[in-house]
Design goal:
about 160 residues; 5 helices; alpha+beta; 5-stranded mixed sheet; about 25% strand
């Protein structure tokens, strides 16, 4: 982010906050999430959000001048490899505001949350085709720690 972008971001009213299921700001946030997850509809997302909330799924959005510019779905997971980690299910930035620092702002916020909640690391998966996202995560000092394998159960 160059100095002009920093000044433009600083001049905006920027807020980072959690989004509950009934939050009216989802009208602006869901389209940003759909940039990453185009299969989601308002109806399917409501079902996923309600069930996911019982599993610890939370959403945090970045709002600039009242409009959502980035959103992340995340949860705290306890497991044998990391003990306690913040797992980022989704991190999506509006295509109109990419490279303006909002993804970094959101990731920094999640990092603070992870530290406050006693996590040892932040973990996420990124599709192999998402080269711009990979450059961003590497620039933010993430490293490629493992291969993630999936098997669709319909193929079992």
């Amino acid at each position: 982010m160059d100095s002009l972008e920093r000044v433009e971001q600083a001049e905006r009213d920027v807020e980072v906050s959690e989004l509950s299921l009934g939050d009216v700001r989802w009208g602006h946030a869901l389209p940003i999430l759909q940039e990453l997850r185009p299969h989601l509809t308002a109806e399917s997302f409501a079902v996923i959000h309600a069930e996911g909330a019982r599993q610890g799924l939370k959403f945090t959005g970045v709002f600039a001048d009242g409009l959502c510019v980035a959103v992340a779905g995340w949860r705290i997971i306890t497991n044998t490899s990391a003990v306690r980690k913040l797992y980022v299910d989704d991190l999506s930035v509006s295509p109109y505001t990419r490279s303006a620092g909002y993804g970094k702002l959101l990731l920094d916020h999640l990092t603070e949350r992870a530290v406050d909640m006693g996590c040892t690391l932040i973990d996420l998966d990124s599709g192999v085709q998402r080269f711009d996202a990979h450059r961003f995560y590497l620039r933010e000092r993430f490293h490629i720690a493992s291969h993630h394998f999936s098997k669709f159960l319909s193929e079992a």
